[in-house]
Amino acid sequence: MSGESATAIHKGQVDLLDFIDWTGVECLNQSTTHSLPNAIKQGYREDEGLHLESDADEQLLLYIPFTQVIKLYSFVIKGPEDEGPKTVKLFSNKEHMGFSNVNDYPPSDTAVLSPENLKGKPVLLKYVKFQNVRSLTIFIEDNQTDSEITKVQKILLIGSTGFRGSSSREKKDDQKGCFNCKKPGHFIAECPELQKDKPKNGRFLKDSFENKFKKIPMTTWDELDNE
User: The PITH domain covers which part of the protein (predicted)?
Assistant: First the structure.
């Protein structure tokens, strides 16, 4: 990991590169000789001699699916000060977008990149808009000087996978409570105290339960009729 990437990523966040589903990644209007892997893949994006470049005009449309649901906090897009991206629109979980319909949908967030951003300063996103992201569409609408070509040197997506802390199974185990010994972590059928009364054939002794709980008196219909 480069020093720049380490600075951009805070505690609890990761570079989401390892969670990209490369089989579904697309980039519309990219140059055949300067394609998306140059800007986003490990090893390529650190090479200053490589970059992503637009083809017919200044716009680029990137589609990035993930192998699991992620949370996106921020991103880094580096580029030259003249041909680097300017207006960047991000869409969460929007499938099959193209240049013909990208303006038909409101973006999840929009960023206007500054010279500092193009040098590697992270862009913070509206976090609530990127909580359960399965795919991300990035629309680079223009560049810094209205040049016919846009160049991107590096793309870094920063977030988390949402699987920190205890698993749901562990949380359920923590919520267990035994009615016999009143201790957490197990139900009555798993109670260690009752397991001591268990015979060798694997069945609980009936008396062990009857001695633990008092029977509640019940009134029968015959008793009600005799009143």
Answer: 5-177
